[in-house]
Amino acid sequence: MKNTQALAAVVSSVGLLVFQADAAFAQQKPSPAAQAALPPHATEVEEDALKALRRMGAYLDTLKTFGLTANTSLEVVTVDGQRLQLDGVTTYKVRRPNGFVINMKSDIKNRTFVYDGKHFTVYAPELKYYATVDAPPTNIATLDKIYDKFGISLPLEDLFHWNNGENREAKLISGFVVGPATIDGVATDHYAFREEGMDWQIWIAKGDKPLPKKLVIIDRTDESAPTYIARLSWVENPPLTQQDFAFSPGSDAKPIKFMAAR
After folding, report:
1. Which stretches of the chain drop beneath a pLDDT of 50?
2. Domains along the chain?
3. Exposed/middle/buried for 25, CB within 10 Å: 0-12, 13-18, 19+?
4. Residue 166 contacts by C-beta under 8 Å, 6 or more apart in sequence?
5. pTM to 2 decimals?
6. In this structure, what is the dihedral angle of CA atoms 55, 22, 20, 208, given to the nearest 10 degrees?
7. Three-state SS across the chain?
8. pLDDT tens-digit profile of 159-179?
9. What is the pLDDT of residues 216-258, one digit of tens each?
């Protein structure tokens, strides 16, 4: 999952992504069956867990447009060992195959990412700077380009890649069904997965609209195990026009250039 890279980028510059989570919805205790699947050297991926990911990905792929609000939280540890939780909200407007606007807002840092089908722009409204670059003709190609060329990995960009099932499944070391759970009043099924250097969990809505409702990513390459949590609220197929993806900077905003990743 490229979210591993996104989490690492967040940890290396605290405040780039800031999120909100509700401690009252802490991870539920696994059932005895799930606990039996938890040994540290587990190497099995349950077929039911794989089927759930495939079904969710297939449904996400049917959405021609969507709106999303992610109330998210990043838990990090200071150099003296104190754990901190940084909160904020990220909103999305997405059009397939070629448009998105992502707004990240927090008390630490605000950023807007805009792709109109031809150009990709990063805007820092409080700093009054923006940078624009020519972009490929699809969302996925644009995400790949800005990461490869500029080292920019956008929050929850895996939502654009879920249908790339074979590559994702090949990375899984283990995966299992934890059990049912209710997230923000929605009945879901809870799944846990492990990849190289990362554990992640996902809560998928039951029924004929298997949307992800919560995501947790734990970076196991760091002893402090920084943790990213996102609670997701969806609007399916909202009416969006080209104007929704037009970038219009403030009158006092100044253009700057992207720097290539080292």
Report:
1. 3-31, 33-41
2. 3-22+30-244 (2.50.20.10)
3. middle
4. none
5. 0.81
6. 20
7. CCHHHHHHHHHHCCCCCCCCCCHHHCCCCCCHHHHHCCCCCCCCECHHHHHHHHHHHHHHCCCCEEEEEEEEEEEEECCCCCEEEEEEEEEEEEECCCEEEEEEECCCCCEEEEECCCEEEEEECCCCEEEEEECCCCHHHHHHHHHHHHCCCCCCHHHHCCCCHHHHHHHCCEEEEEEEEEECCEEEEEEEEEECCEEEEEEEECCCCCCEEEEEEEECCCCCCCEEEEEEEEEECCCCCHHHHCCCCCCCCEEECCCCCC
8. 887 765 556 788 899 999 999
9. 999 999 988 999 999 999 999 999 999 999 999 888 999 999 9
Roughly how many angstroms between the first and final C-alpha of the chain, as a whole number? 22
User: Distance of CA 19 to CAs 22, 92, 180, 184, Å?
Assistant: 11, 14, 25, 17
Buried b (16+ CB within 10 A) or exposed e, 232-260: bebeeeeebeeebbebebeeeeeeeebee
Report the relative pairing of strands 83-95 and 99-105 from DSSP bridges: antiparallel
Strands 227-236 and 212-219: antiparallel
> Position 188: which residue type?
T
What is the spatial distance between Cα 11 and Cα 9, in angstroms, rounded to a whole number?
5
